Amino acid sequence: MRWRALGLGLAISTSACAVLGEGDGQVHSDALYAADCWNGPFELAPDFFGAVPFRETLHIRIQRGSDLQEVSDGLEVLVNELGSLRANELGKPIEVGLAPQLFKEIAPGLADGPAPRISVALNLQNSCHSQNVALFGLRGSVTFAALFSGDPNESVGSEKLTDATFDILVADPRDAIPGTVDVPAEKTSRVTGRFKFHFQRGQPGQPFP
Question: Does the global pTM surpass 0.90?
Answer without folding.
Answer: no
